[in-house]
Each structure stands twice: as C-alpha cells, then as structure tokens.
TrEMBL record:
Binding-site positions, substrate: 71-72
Occurrences of domain Carbohydrate kinase FGGY N-terminal (ranges): 4-217
This protein's name: Xylulose kinase
Family stated for the protein in its record: Belongs to the FGGY kinase family.
Record keyword Protein transport present: no
PANTHER family according to UniProt: SUGAR KINASE, XYLULOSE KINASE
Active site residues of this protein: 226 (proton acceptor)
Domain of life: Bacteria
Source organism (scientific name): Actinoplanes utahensis
Family matches, as CDD domains: ASKHA_NBD_FGGY_BaXK-like
Keywords: ATP-binding, Carbohydrate metabolism, Kinase, Nucleotide-binding, Transferase, Xylose metabolism
Reactions this protein catalyses: D-xylulose + ATP = D-xylulose 5-phosphate + ADP + H(+)
GO molecular function, one term: D-xylulokinase activity
Transmembrane segments: none
C-alpha cells in the first residue's frame, strides 16, 4: 500500500494527514499549534510542522507529499536564503495604505483586475512588500527573494538552501498581485512598482509538477493555497460553492472562466487543476465565535446551544463582526459593533445568536457577490473549524438560501494536499478519485429579514 502525506500549514495550526494513495483512507495524522498574531517568524511554522509530522508517525514511508497553507504571507529571504524578518500574514492590515496607493498608481482597481485578476487589499503579498520598502528600508535592502508560506515549507522539506530551488503553484501565486492566473505569467513590472526593484520569485509549477524531494527520495508536489487545496480535498463538483469557516471566512468555487471584478470583491485566484477559483474572503469567521464564547465565558458547544435557544433574527440584535478590521468589504480599520441592544436582547442567548448570524451574514454577502460574477450555487459545502458548530450548520441554510452539505469533521485542506501528492505519483490529467464519506445535509426556509437587518447595521 503506497502512502501519501498532505500538510496544511494554516493560520492557527499545522495539520498532517497520511492517506492511502489509491483509496484515500486515512492512516495516520498529527497536529501542532502556531503562535498567535499577524506577524509570525516562519521558523515557528517549521517547528510546528516537525511536531505534527512526528505525531503523524513521520514521513519516511510516504511515496509523495504536498504542502498547502495560509495564503499571501510575505516570506522575505536574503541572498543566503535566511528569513529577513517575521512574515506579515494575510490578516495583517498594516499595509492597507500601501494597497490604496498601489490602486492609485496603476490608475484604478479595474487596471489591477485586468492585469492580475485581483485588486490590492492589505492581505495581498505585494502590499506587504510596499510596506516593507517604505517602513523598514534596512530590511528591504537585504531582500533577494520573496515567497509564500507553503513555498517556504516545501523548500525547507526539500533540504535545499538555494533560492533557485524555490517553487510554488498557480493557486498561491495568483494571490500575490504579481502573477496572473489568466496568462500564467509573472508581472515583474508590478513587483517593481510595489517594491521598487525586482526580486527572485519561485518557479510556478503545473498541477503535478515536482518541487523537490524528501530525504527518502519521495517527490514533493507543487502544493497549494489552502482554499484551492480544500476544493480538491472536499471533491467539490460543479454547482458546489465551498464556504470555509476558519480564521478567514471564504466562499469559492472552481470555474473554467477567470473572473474579472474591478471592485475586488471577488478575487480571481487559480485552482490546483489548471482552472480558476473565484473567491470572496472575510477576515472575521471562526474567531467571531471564539470571541463570543469568551465574552459569555462558555465553550463552543454551549455557545451553539445558546444561539439555537434564541429566536431567528435575535429580536433585532445584530453583531457586525469586524473584530480584526475587514477585507470584504474593504474596511481595514473597522471594529465590531452591536446593534439593537434592548432589555429584551441583553442576554447570553441573544448575543450568541447575533454572533452566529452576523458571521454568516457576511459570508452570505460573499455568496451573493460570487453568484453575481456567474458562479452556479446549487448547494453549499461547509468546512473549516466553525462548521463543527451545530448552530452554524443549522442557521446557515436560512441565510444562504441553499441546502448546506457538511462533510464529516476533517482536515480538508490537508486532504487536498494529500490528494495532490497522490496525483503526482499516479500522473494523468485528473486527480485520483477517492471515495468520500456521506455528508450531512441541512435545509431550512430562507429568512430574508435577518439579512436585511444585518445590511442596515453594517451600512
Ligand atoms: N465546535 C466549534 N464551534 C465553533 N468554532 C470552532 C469549533 N471547533 C473549533 N472551532 C474554531 O475553528 C477555528 C479553527 O479552524 P481551522 O479551520 O482549523 O482554522 P485555520 O485553518 O484558520 O487555522 C478556531 O478558531 C476554533 O476555535
Ligand atoms: O487570505 C486568505 C485567502 O485569500 C485566507 O483564506 C488565508 O489563506 C488563511 O486561511 P485560513 O487559515 O483562515 O484557513
């Protein structure tokens, strides 16, 4: 039995799954936490990866491995391959001003959408490079190459220290602002515009390209951004829109067509198969539930029970959940707010309900935008840590207006990476077909009034 490894180096933790390459059966797994904060030294990811690999029984017996990870983080390397400063993560909003400047300098959001399929917001890598050039010129002067979290971990696993061995894949390259998913080419002119000079960037591999080898000689796949890997891991089919409730909230689908949204609401990323991955991303998702649970001094199960005990719409109590600023809509300096507080709504159950509804309403806005650019949404596939909440699962269909399919709790990003690794070993035009466990399906009548009261509160 050949085994493959899939890795998800996500915002809050690192997860490793070892699966049977032919059937997809889970054989072993491991997990380790990442430090908190929006600025993290990549060495912390490497340490967590080692721990998760050890917990998963090691990689000595795998035939291939792939790394997926949180997107956009700026990993700046000097000419010797050393990390210049801690990485600025996708949810670090200090480069919001740089994003606005870049839009103006190129002549508008439509110019960026035409050039690279996405419009600058603080999340994207090039805005972070601009911030570095403006605010830390001594560090900026040392930078020889820039890569993303999954590229760096793949490179470290390969044991190389040569910058020329850096590799990435289409899905993650498409979130940098200096690579176009439509033309499959780097835009070194835009990298220069943002940073002030050109940099060495990883070679972009196709779906089954080989990024290096593990010490046992097994190939390392190209890897992926975490959302593209989740699309592969869930085995999403046409008509499925995936909603992931992790640190970020994401709403996306695979598409034959590269979207071109000049407002930037829908980003035109690439997927792992040679196609596209139109996506809407919010900064506030599972941690809104974490924050509500903390405020109420309860665990997630009790938060869910409380939310389900309050009436739909929480009698007008609305939480606008911009706890870390927000990316969609682009309000990097926003804070969260509670609307409709009365004596009747001032209790734990109403607050719990408002937290779940507010977080989901922001994602339902994202679904509308995605459908507005042509995506077909027959059903929603709900994944990520937040999907473990029963309240989220039961309230979601009323706000999305679609049936919500919830696969068994699992690590779908790491699973997507494992399936990519199996594809690397098997070859061919399509990834191997793995059997999936039967998902739960949640249905409910749509309740437009909840979205209407949310729309008024968020303005
Ligand atoms: N039962 C639950 N209900 C709500 N949230 C949960 C539950 N279990 C885990 N979470 C939250 O899910 C998040 C982790 O999800 P995950 O998808 O792994 O995030 P990421 O990929 O961003 O690291 C954490 O914020 C965690 O508190
Ligand atoms: O910024 C994005 C996508 O554009 C995020 O989706 C990150 O990729 C982080 O993912 P999670 O850690 O929240 O899963």
């Amino acid at each position: 039995m050949a085994l493959v490894a899939g890795i998800d180096s996500s915002t809050q933790s690192c997860k490793v799954v070892i699966r049977d390459a032919e059937t997809g059966r889970l054989v072993r797994q491991g997990r380790a936490v990442h430090p908190d904060g929006t600025e993290v030294h990549p060495d912390a990811w490497w340490a967590a990866l080692q721990q998760a690999i050890e917990e998963a029984g090691g990689l000595d017996d795998v035939a291939a491995a792939s790394v997926a990870g949180q997107q956009h983080g700026m990993v700046a390397l000097d000419e010797n391959g050393a990390v210049v400063r801690p990485a600025l993560l996708w949810n670090d909003t200090r480069s919001a001003g740089a994003a606005a400047d870049l839009i103006e300098e190129l002549g508008g959001g439509d110019k960026w959408a035409d050039a690279v399929g996405i419009v600058p917001v603080a999340s994207f890598t090039l805005t972070k490079l601009r911030w570095l050039a403006r605010n830390e010129p001594a560090n900026a002067a040392k930078v020889a190459a820039v890569c993303l979290p999954h590229d760096w971990l793949t490179w470290k696993l390969s044991g190389s220290t040569s910058l020329s061995d850096l590799r990435t894949d289409r899905s993650d390259a498409s979130g940098t602002l200096y690579w176009s998913a439509r033309t499959n080419e780097y835009r070194h002119d835009l990298l220069e515009l943002g940073f002030g000079r050109d940099l060495l960037v990883p070679e972009v591999l196709g779906p089954t390209g080989i990024a290096g080898h593990l010490p046992n000689g097994a190939p390392l796949g190209p890897g992926a951004g975490d959302n593209a890997a989740a699309a592969l891991g869930t085995g999403a089919r046409p008509g499925d829109v995936i909603v992931s409730i992790g640190t970020s909230g994401t709403v996306f689908a695979s598409s034959e067509v590269a979207p071109n949204d000049p407002t930037g609401t829908v980003a035109g990323f690439a997927d792992t198969t040679g196609r596209f991955l139109p996506i809407v991303v919010t900064l506030n998702a599972a941690r809104v539930l974490d924050a509500a649970a903390k405020l109420l001094n309860v665990g997630h199960d009790e938060l869910s029970r409380l939310a389900l005990s309050a009436p739909a719409g929480a009698d007008g109590l609305v939480l606008v959940p911009y706890l870390e600023g927000e990316r969609t809509p682009n309000r990097p300096d926003a804070t969260g707010s509670l609307h409709g507080l009365t004596l009747r709504t001032s209790n734990p159950a109403h607050l719990a309900r408002a937290a779940v509804e507010g977080m989901l309403c922001a994602l339902a806005d994202g679904l509308d935008a995605l459908v507005g650019t042509g995506a077909v949404a027959d059903r929603i596939v709900l994944v990520g840590g937040g999907a473990r909440s029963e309240a989220v699962r039961r309230i979601a269909p009323a706000l999305f207006g679609k049936p919500v399919v919830v696969p068994p709790p699992g690590e779908y990003v790491a699973d997507g990476a494992a399936r990519q690794a199996a594809w690397v070993t098997a070859g061919g035009d399509l990834p191997p077909v793995w059997s999936a466990e039967t998902p739960e399906v949640y249905e409910a009548d749509s309740i437009p009034s909840i979205r209407e009261q949310y729309a008024i509160a968020r303005g």
